[in-house]
Amino acid sequence: MKATPLLRSIALFDGLSAQDLDALAGALESRTFAAGANIFTQGDSGSSMYIVEHGEINIFLPDGQSPGIALRTILPGEYFGELALFDDKPRSASALAGSDVLLYELPRATLENYLEHRPRAALAILRTISARLRETNALLSSRAAKNVNEEFEKSLSWGDRLADVVAELNGSWKFILLLLGFTLVWCLINTGWIMKSPLDPYPYQFFNLALAILVGLQGPLIVMSQNRQSRKDRARSDGDFNVNLKNEMNIEILLREVGELRAELKSDRAASTKKGYPESIVGQPR
């Protein structure tokens, strides 16, 4: 996988032209790490983002002697550490090579130099960031769970409702029994036993024509209902994704706060021990 397609797959650079992407890809630095190597540790000063070409990166919160709290696994084509491009704050988590990896590193200085020579690219990146922030704010400020069935029912037209009724009726024993009963009655009426001059004598050409028209109308109506059901399923899947995304964001916030709380308690315990306080009272509420 080349650097330019990798950059094109990153939402941060959606607004860049092909020429800008090629120029930025040429400024990336390739780095390799063996399995088990630390890319960076929580609390380190960061100034680069990384794009994974192949291999896996495990993002986690360190937890003393334990392996830590796993946050996410970064796969090929994904990126991490992008916040370091825009602020000077320490890394909020640690990154460990889960296998032999090849990364493309984008230092902040390289991006700044690139944007100085291409101010239009800076505006495109800012527009992308602004759009992503608006989407995130909208997701966090609104309820992600929605009743998809209720919303679809409100937007149905009479044609949509008719298609649903036809599709539901055609898939039932009621329709089969009604069609068989109507066919039997029609044949009895037009055999000559009841009427001397039947309207549609054997071989029942008018009845065959009516059946052909019925079949011709049933097909499009059923397909219309199935297409709308597919749209409803996609909307339901999108709703489930938004719910899962919001839950994931909240869980990541909770994990980060728990990690910060543990680090603070550990720091307080170390400071209290150094001052000579008994181990039994260290970490108790003050």
TrEMBL record:
<dbReference type="InterPro" id="IPR010406">
    <property type="entry name" value="DUF1003"/>
</dbReference>
<feature type="domain" description="Cyclic nucleotide-binding">
    <location>
        <begin position="12"/>
        <end position="115"/>
    </location>
</feature>
<keyword id="KW-1133">Transmembrane helix</keyword>
<dbReference type="InterPro" id="IPR014710">
    <property type="entry name" value="RmlC-like_jellyroll"/>
</dbReference>
<protein>
    <submittedName>
        <fullName>DUF1003 domain-containing protein</fullName>
    </submittedName>
</protein>
<feature type="transmembrane region" description="Helical">
    <location>
        <begin position="175"/>
        <end position="194"/>
    </location>
</feature>
<keyword id="KW-0472">Membrane</keyword>
<dbReference type="InterPro" id="IPR018490">
    <property type="entry name" value="cNMP-bd_dom_sf"/>
</dbReference>
<dbReference type="InterPro" id="IPR000595">
    <property type="entry name" value="cNMP-bd_dom"/>
</dbReference>
<dbReference type="Pfam" id="PF06210">
    <property type="entry name" value="DUF1003"/>
</dbReference>
<keyword id="KW-0812">Transmembrane</keyword>
<feature type="region of interest" description="Disordered">
    <location>
        <begin position="266"/>
        <end position="286"/>
    </location>
</feature>
<dbReference type="Pfam" id="PF00027">
    <property type="entry name" value="cNMP_binding"/>
</dbReference>
<dbReference type="GO" id="GO:0005737">
    <property type="term" value="C:cytoplasm"/>
</dbReference>
<feature type="transmembrane region" description="Helical">
    <location>
        <begin position="206"/>
        <end position="224"/>
    </location>
</feature>
<dbReference type="InterPro" id="IPR018488">
    <property type="entry name" value="cNMP-bd_CS"/>
</dbReference>
